[in-house]
Design a protein that fits this description.
Glutaredoxin; 227 residues; alpha+beta; five-stranded mixed β-sheet; 8 helices; globular
């Protein structure tokens, strides 16, 4: 009988001790769980700030009001089919819808490794620009009426009434080679890697995006709420 009472007493003591230890063990479990799992849990991603690039106009060809609230800079290639498509489908619509609000700047980014006619075309456009015909020649190149190449440039220049001797001398001397190559170098410095690439008040848009994408960005800029 005494032995049974002793065993019962020991059991009660163990239960009492276990009751005291349970809360401590629970807290230790929580702490170790946080240490193992919580410490390595991915942090909540912070919203990324919109990057606005510094893309000066410099002496690049530009059209539209100088004091326009929106400046669109395009880096493009006359032999790029996506550039041609964007010019045909989007450019004119933007300039018509936002004619008092957009200044459009064209900078050269000929992809010389795959478009051998792109840089000569860019240089020819600048040569036409010496006779105040950059934009008509630019339109002619994108029209692809005669394609690209030396003979095509002669035909475009003739139709535009340019002085062919002056035009051809400019092309032969490669008078604008350094300007075109300077555009290429600068484009790389602002993360341009393909054509067409645009900067709307410094905000990058890559590819021949539809009119609606440009409208969204332009309207946001005009409202002072660019996203």
């Amino acid at each position: 009988m005494k032995k049974s009472n002793l065993q019962l007493s020991i059991l009660k003591q163990r239960i009492w001790i276990l009751g005291l230890l349970l809360p401590v063990l629970f807290l230790l479990g929580l702490g170790s769980g946080w240490f193992i799992w919580g410490r390595n849990a991915p942090a909540v991603a912070k919203p990324q700030a919109v990057r606005r690039y510094e893309v000066p106009v410099g002496n690049a060809p530009a059209t539209g009001p100088e004091n326009a609230p929106i400046t669109i800079v395009e880096f493009s290639d006359y032999q790029c089919p996506y550039c041609v498509r964007w010019h045909e489908q989007v450019y004119g619509r933007i300039m018509e819808e936002y004619k008092d609000k957009v200044r459009f700047v064209y900078r050269d980014f000929p992809l010389v490794s795959i478009h051998p006619d792109a840089q000569p075309a860019a240089e020819a456009a600048h040569c036409a620009g010496e006779q105040n015909a950059y934009w008509p020649f630019h339109e002619a190149l994108f029209s692809n009426k005669y394609g690209l190449g030396a003979q095509a440039y002669q035909q475009y220049a003739t139709e535009l009434g340019l002085d062919l001797n002056a035009f051809n001398t400019c092309i032969t001397e490669r008078r604008f080679q350094s300007q075109v190559e300077g555009d290429i170098e600068f484009a790389y410095s602002v993360d341009v890697r393909s054509t067409p690439t645009f900067f709307v008040n410094g905000l990058m848009i890559v590819g021949a995006q539809p009119y609606e994408e440009f409208k969204r960005q332009i309207d946001a800029e005009l409202a002072g709420a660019a996203k």
